[in-house]
Design goal:
Layout: H1 21-43, H2 46-57, H3 64-71, H4 75-96
């Protein structure tokens, strides 16, 4: 097979710029973070998964009175329970990457 020859007028320039090399790292880190969050979420008990799904993940989250009805919980318990569940999730994430942030 003969080697390609340079076309008359030169090689055409690529009209699509190559992405910033740092962009690949950013995408990979975001994918790793998302995987860690899903793994930690799966380790939570069902009640915490429900609370987080309704009050944190839902976009937009429902009003607290609607969330209380949906979850079958008193409205006054949602905030403290949400905090406890997020704290549990934070601890799970910290346990997975204990050296994160130690620069």
């Amino acid at each position: 097979m003969p080697a390609p020859t340079r076309p008359e007028g030169g090689w055409a320039r690529c009209s699509t710029p190559f992405p910033d090399p740092g962009e690949h790292e950013t995408v990979l880190v975001a994918a790793d973070d998302a995987r860690d969050v899903r793994r930690a979420f799966a380790q939570l008990d069902e009640g915490c998964r429900e609370i987080i799904a309704v009050l944190v993940v839902a976009d937009p989250p429902p009003a607290y009175d609607e969330a209380a009805e949906l979850l079958g919980r008193p409205i006054g318990s949602l905030g403290p329970t949400r905090k406890r569940c997020l704290d549990k999730m934070r601890k799970l994430l910290e346990a997975e990457s204990p050296n994160e942030g130690d620069d």
